[in-house]
Each structure stands twice: as C-alpha cells, then as structure tokens.
## 1
Amino acid sequence: MSARERQGLGKTGKGPRKTGTGKTGKGPGSRLKCPICRKPQSAEFRPFCSKHCADIDLGHWLDGRYAVPGAPVSSEEVEKDAEQDDG
Ligand SMILES: [Zn+2]
C-alpha cells in the first residue's frame, strides 16, 4: 500500500470531524446587538446596550399605545389600561 492510497481513503471525509477555523458565524455565545443602535448588548440592559437605549425602546412602546393619531381615547379605556399594567 502506498502513501497515496492512504491519503485517498482518508479524504472521503464523511466524518463529523470539523476543523476549527472559527468561521462558523452563527453559534452559541454569539453576541447580539442592541436593536436601537447596533452596539453590543450589555448583560445588564439586555437586549439593549445601555439604559439609554432601553428608554428609547420604551418610549416607542408608549408612543404607540398612548399617542395614537386620530384615535380618541376615552377615560374608560385609560383606566382599563391602568389595571392591566403588571409591570
Ligand atoms: Zn444601544
């Protein structure tokens, strides 16, 4: 058996073995980014990078809920909303 033959056999490559090139891209522990400013998330303010961005996102929510253009909100509905607040 020559050395070449052995190489050929070894190159059929259906094995689970991976060469760690580190270019897998998606993987466990990949860092997510702040949806507001695309900076790396902070563990403390996930999924945001900082309290600043968390506040911005919160502001968007409040905007959508309480400042709907052309949709008059009766005092009754406001009270309902207050009840559902389980923050
Ligand atoms: Zn941010």
## 2
Amino acid sequence: MPLIQWKESYSLKNTVLDTQHKRLFKILNKLYEDFMHGITDLAYESALDNIIAFTKYHFQTEEQIMHKIKHPHSYSHKQEHNRFSDKIHELKNSPGRDTHEKANELIKFLVNWVLHHIVVEDRKIAHH
Ligand SMILES: [Fe+2]
Ligand SMILES: [Fe+2]
C-alpha cells in the first residue's frame, strides 16, 4: 500500500504542475516503502538528496509561473517553499540519531507538508 495516493481533487488543472506533484508522491511513497523494509543509511541519504533536488526544480517552476501571472501571494508562497527547504536541510545536517528515527520524522513532515501545500497553497496558483 502506498502511503499517499494521488486523487483527482489534487489536480490544479495544470499538466506541468500536476506531473511534478505526482512525482513528489512517488518519491515519498518510495521512501515509505524503504522505511517499511528497514531503511539503510544510503537509501535515506539518497531520498533526501532526491527530495532536495526535485523540490528545488519544482519550486522554481511554480515561482516562475507565479511571477508570470503576477500572482498576489507569490511572496508568502515563496516563503513557504523556503521554509520547506530549510527544514529539509536541517534534517540532512542533523547529526547522529538512528536512520529509522530520522526517516520517520522526514516522512511525517513530508506527508503533512506535501498534502497541505498542494491542496491549499498551490491551489491558489491555479485558481488565481
Ligand atoms: Fe507544488
Ligand atoms: Fe508551492
């Protein structure tokens, strides 16, 4: 069972953004699958690097769109992206602790963030 499943109601009616959001779901479900099977340090590190690289790319896409359509909440939206990146980097740099515990924290953070951000914040881009 995947951790989170894409629903049509998540769609922003924007193919580029929907495709990228679905990719985020995939990355998160893969991390969860690894977690359930006893995640290795290597798999955890590579999931984090994947998330960092992909969200950097995804946030740039959204920020360019918001800039183009002169979206009124682009500043606060960008701040949410920055807070996400700060948290992920903080997790990446947090020393010690066991990988299972760190992966658990990462997954919880991602599920809450991804669902809230896509459903509430990103929706404002599409419905502007
Ligand atoms: Fe997004
Ligand atoms: Fe966003």
## 3
Amino acid sequence: MAVTVKELREVLMYDPGNIKPGGTDMQKYNVNESIQNQKEYCATKGYSQVAPRDGICGNCGLQIYSVVYHEPNNFQKSFGMQGWVTGVSTEESKMLVIGCPHCRHSFIRLAPA
Ligand SMILES: [Zn+2]
C-alpha cells in the first residue's frame, strides 16, 4: 500500500520502535478493537491504511495488536536489563500504524511524487 509524503508529514504516527518495560505496561490490548480503530482512523482522516487488515505482520507473522513479552538474553541480563514488551495498544491503534512493533518491519512504501 502506498502512502504519500504529504500524508506522512500530517499524521500522528505510531512509532514501531516503541518498547515498554515488561511488567509495568498498563496499556490495554485488544485485537478486534484495535483493527476496528485503525480502520476507522484511516477512513475518517482519509489516509491510506498501511497496516495489515488482519493485524498479522507479513514479515514476522505476529499479531501487531497483541502484546509480546521479550526475555532478555544472558548478555543483556548480565547488565541488569529487564524484559520488555512490544505491541500496538488500543490507544496507539488510534494513530496511523506504519510498522510492526515486534520486528520493526515497515509497512510503508513511498508513492512517486
Ligand atoms: Zn513483524
């Protein structure tokens, strides 16, 4: 799905690189509600929806609107690093979702000017 540069400048975008500390994430996740939110947001604003309609990332196969916990590896643990979670929450699904929160794959392909 193509999106214009103008659209990119205007919209409030969800940051696919957004990670949240594990265990302290109080955000709500609901796949069906988030799919609907994203669809309605794009329709209302007249933006091209770039996120997959079913929420399944074509790159990693994970559900973008579900929360995934990431366990730190031993190297990260040796520095005291805690686990973290990724996922587009129901609140975040009210912004233009441009990439997968889990693998950071971009859903955007720039349209020719
Ligand atoms: Zn992905």
## 4
Amino acid sequence: MWKDNIPWSREIKNNMKMEFLNWFEELSSLKNLFVSRCFSHAISGQHGISIHTFCDASQFANAAAVFIRIEYADIHVNPLAAKLRVPPVTTTNIPRLELLAATVGARACTSVIRAHQRYQVVERLIMTEHKKNSHARLQMLLNVLREHYWILNARKTVRSVLSKCVICLRHAKRNVTTPSASLPENRIKDFAVFEITGFGLAGTLYLKGGSKEWICIYTCAVFRAVHFELFLSLTTEAFLQSFRRFIARRGRPSIVYCDNGGNFIGASNYFKSVNWPEIAQFSSMRRMQWLFNPPTASWRGGFWERLVGVIKHILRRVLGKAFLPYEEMITVLCNTESIINSREYIHASEKDSERIHLSHNSFWQDFRQIGVPDLDQVDEVVLN
Ligand SMILES: [Zn+2]
C-alpha cells in the first residue's frame, strides 16, 4: 500500500483486500500458539544451556529469532525473542539486507543476555551461595559458583549482588578518621613575631641570563608572618648568610622548625660545634633550638608549606614567563612578602566595614600602608 502510494482514505483493490482479510483471519489462531516464558531449569544452571540466534533476509523482510536450548532430561528448545523488519525501500541488494538482518539478530541476542543477567533468580542464587559460604568475597564466590553454574558476565553480576549484602556493607572498611592533634604549645603561646620560626625552600627561579636561584621561606609559627630570602646556591654557607640576614632584620628565633634538607642539617651541625657555655658567659644570648621534621613526615612542615603555595600563586601571576635580573627579583619578592603579610586573619564581611581587621603586619608594623603607586608612576615616566 505504501509502495503503491495509496492514500489512507481510499479503499484498497480486491487482491490486496483478500490478502489482508486472510491475514486478519489467521490472527485468531494466535490463541493456540504457546510460548514458554519460564526457564527455571535454565536458571538452576545445572543443565547445558545455550542461546542460538537465527537471522535471514529477503527482499520482503528481514527477521531474527533467539532460542534457548536446555538439556534437562530431554532437550528443550524455546523461542526467547524475535524481530521482524520490512527492508528499506531503496535497498535491493540482498547481501546488504542479510547484513541488516545479522545486526537485528545481534541486537536481539544482546537484549536477551542482558535480561538474563538481570534476572532476579540469578541474583538470589548468588546471594544464597554468598551467605552459605560465610559471606564469601568476590573471587572465592566466583570460584564456588563456577563449580556448578555458568553465569553470564559473572564478575560484574556477582559484584553488583555483593554490593547489596547488608551485613557485608556494615563490615566494609571505613576511612580511618583520626581527630587532628592539637598544636604544640610553642605555636599557641604568646611569643614575639618570628620567635618561633619554621622554614623551608619554596622553589627555584631562573634569573635573567639563565642563572638559577632558590627562594627560602621563613614563617612565624605563631603569627604566620613570612620572610623570604634568595639563595644563589644550595649550600650551608649560603643558608647561613641568609639566616644572618633574617636574624638581623627580624630578630633571633628561639625555636627553629625546619625540613630535613642537607644544608639545614649542615647548618645545625655548625651550631653544634659552637662552644655555647663560653658564649653564654659573655652574653645573655639564648641557644636556638633546632627541630627537624622526620624524613618521612614532611606534613609536619605544613604551616610553611601552605605559605609556599601562596607565594607560588602570586609569583606565577606576577612573573609569568619573565626572567628578571637579581635586583628586580629581590624587589618582586619583598613585594610579595608584604602582600602576604598584609592578609587578614579573618574574613572581612561587608557589614562590619567600621572595624579594623587584624593582619599579620599589625603585630610589628606601625605604618600599615603597603604599595608604592608614587614609585610606579615615576617608573612609568622613566620608561616612556
Ligand atoms: Zn555478605
């Protein structure tokens, strides 16, 4: 009808009408057709089961049928699924139609297999075996099941069933959560800024001309203020020079936390060779206490590593891919230091704009202004 372009409203011709009426009469005989829908023998898995797919094509139609074959006392063959399609009007090539039918067959077969996997009885069987074998885990359960049954896509199916066992879920491991340890006393007491200091290396930079330099970060463990130094070489001598500069500008720390870096340990050993009783006789200088992080506990340096993240965040944006000369790099670093030290301790809400917020600078800088717009302007004029 469709090929002959017959509209819906027109009555069809005699031979076509007869064909349709015959087909319509045959429909009543469908009630005598019986298709078994229960395959409990197959589900018990104790018998040879195989799934067979047939497909064929002609110029009138392509079809596929999926059958199950069960060996149980006798051989039982039952249809499971069938598909029928009218071929496309434009395709007259038989091999092409055969290929289409094969595709239809493969799809029908896949859907049957999936339905089988979803079958609740299989799930119940797996769960029963799981409980029978003292809540056996995946691999053991697979082995036990394979002795008697063949489950399609077994690993995936068994895993999904196991995930529903309430008892196993209850005993499943949980992430270990430990309450975080309280901070050491010397980090919460009232000390002078930088009296308790932590330091580590914050990373490397390349200067104009290709020379390499290292940034060292000194952090106050109590007020979290920072101080940066540049090393041109990673040696104990270079570290001691920077440490001298730090003490000269920020004061002498009483406790120094640091990483396990070789040059730091070298510096500590230098200090060990100092005759402290002799020095103590002539000055009131206190001996500095050096606390090294154990080699496998770098997390203990978290309080300066966090600030290393902050400085990297700023430098990446300020420097980009630029290589600066040493002097300019020092300026950028001091600027960064000033920005980090001026950050506020608490979130400044818009509502309490009247209040003065505490920053790290508040503890040792009387002039709270940072930034040099006047110098920037001079720079601009010079560059122009
Ligand atoms: Zn279980």
